Amino acid sequence: MQVRFLLFASYRDLTGVEDGGLELPPGATAGTAVAALRARGAPWSALPDRPVVAVNEEYARLDRPLADGDEIALLPPVAGG
């Protein structure tokens, strides 16, 4: 199945990529998508293995099943004050 990924802020800066497509096996989860991105090697491997994610613009757990055409966003921590 094909999903779209989005990277924001420091994750985008780290990889130099804002978005893209990702081919995943049937039954994949948000965690599977994160692992597939990290498996691309440096600098992708520097992404955290358990980031905050959103699937189709809703916060989701890493065990959330994905469907063909879903969009997964990796959201870095935000500091404020």
List the defining traits of the structure above.
81 residues, alpha+beta, five-stranded mixed β-sheet, globular
Explain this structure to me?
The chain is of the alpha+beta class. It has helices spanning 9-15, 30-38; strands at residues 2-7, 19-23, 52-55, 58-60, 71-75. Helix content is 20%, strand content 28%. It has a five-stranded mixed sheet. The longest helix has 9 residues, at 30-38. The protein is globular. The model has no long low-confidence stretch (mean pLDDT 96).
Give me a quick take on this structure.
With 81 residues, this protein is α+β, with helices and mostly antiparallel strands.
Please outline the helices and strands.
Layout: E1 2-7, H1 9-15, E2 19-23, H2 30-38, E3 52-55, E4 58-60, E5 71-75
Parallel strand pairs: 1-5
Antiparallel strand pairs: 1-2, 3-4, 3-5
